[in-house]
Amino acid sequence: MPMEIQRAISEGKRHPPDKRRQMIRILADEVQKYEANPTRSQCLTICQKITHQYPGSFAYLTPSGKLIAGGYISLLSQLKTRVENINRSGTFQRYRSSGPCRIAGVKRGPTDMYGCTRFQPELPPEETDDTVEEKRQRLQSTYSKYGINGDDRPDVTDLMETTFSLQRRHINRIPASSVADLRLNWPYLFTQRGIFSHFELLTDVPVLRALELSVEECGNAVVEYLRTKVKNSNVQTILAQNASGDLTFLVIQLLMAHFNESPDGLMLSTDEYATAADDETSLSLPASPCLILCGNEQLVVGWMSALKAISSLRESSQHL
Questions:
Q1: How far is residue 104's CA from residue 148's CA, in Å, rounded to a whole number?
Q2: How far is residue 261 from each of residues 169, 255, 257, 281, 291, measured CA to CA in Å?
Q3: pLDDT digit string (tens) for the chain, length 320 residues
Q4: What is the SS3 assignment for 271?
């Protein structure tokens, strides 16, 4: 490492941003001597060791000195992003799977795989195309028998994990499958449990728990930063109106206001006692996925998810 970095580490001090970026580049080059495309978990191991050995220089802390997400999240993000940037223009670009729908004259371009660790995995060693298709049909039969509430059955969980490669093949088709077709073939993919499980297999990130931890550990810091450092009038208005409101909802509102994003396409409000069937007729739902806020901005009692293309899902939406 350059002398400026070595000196800062020996003194337990932070180094300037340009020197940190230089260190990240050197670290990524060294890692790639052993693993050309390291996974997030491999990078995590490296960053945990660095942060543990040199907390004064690398630990991610709040202004009060409290560790944020183990202290290594910032270093991990920089290292993984550097590796992905190196590989994006090289031989690690993947192309969408043509599957059974190969079309003459349709050029398949490189797919952005940022954050994905299993974009198009191979079949499990003990499985064949016929066996995973048979298991997909079993999932459909289970859905016909138990409906959407069957997603908590252990056999459904196992079958969804085993058929993950086939799910990805259907999702990555060219031309793309419609949402209605995907729901017909994979009804349990459109449940909260199913989509969270799929996302974790795709990225190695347990998204719901990661979001909860992020809000718990960083939510108040984000609010305090925007309260004291940002002079955006919309931000200050939201802070004044939601002094004692739900923290998650407040953080989402503040970030959207800070980046001048309208919440109308993402969040809709409804009565706290309204059912999903009520929302079907009373709300003008967008074509894209959105969140339905149950209650008011001062008192959030729950959320429902909505997707206009899949109306039947709203009949079984659950408060999160």
A1: 38
A2: 34, 8, 6, 27, 15
A3: 878 888 888 888 887 778 888 888 999 999 988 888 888 888 888 888 888 888 888 787 666 666 666 677 778 888 888 888 887 655 444 444 433 333 344 444 444 455 678 888 889 888 999 999 999 999 999 999 998 888 888 899 999 999 999 999 999 888 888 888 999 999 999 888 888 899 988 888 888 888 888 888 888 888 888 888 888 888 888 888 876 567 888 888 888 889 888 877 677 777 666 665 555 555 666 666 677 777 655 544 455 555 443 333 333 333 33
A4: coil
- Kindly write down the DSSP assignment for every residue of 113-155, as one continuous string: -TT-S-SSPPPPTT--HHHHHHHHHHHHHHHHHHGGGGGGSHH
Q: Domain-by-domain residue ranges, the chain?
A: 3-88, 95-203, 206-261, 262-320
| DSSP 8-state symbol, 109 | P
Tokens linked to 93: 């670009």
- Under 8 Å between Cβ of 175 and 103: yes
8 Cβ neighbours under 8 A, 6+ residues apart: 14, 15, 19, 57
The rounded distance, in Å, linking the Cα atoms of 256 and 105 is 41
Gap between the Cα atoms of 52 and 27, Å rounded: 16
Distance of alpha carbon 315 from alpha carbon 320, whole angstroms: 15
CB 292 within 8 A of CB 279: yes
- Cα–Cα distance measured from residue 174 to residue 149, given in angstroms and rounded to the nearest whole number: 32
Six token digits for residue 87: 């590989």
CA separation for the pair 44, 316 (Å, rounded):
37
- Token readout for 170 is 């259907």
Q: Which helix (H) or strand (E) holds 85?
A: helix 73-88
* Token code pair at residue 157: 């969980």
Structure tokens, 125: 């060693």
61: DSSP letter: B
How many DSSP H helices and E strands does the chain contain? 15, 5
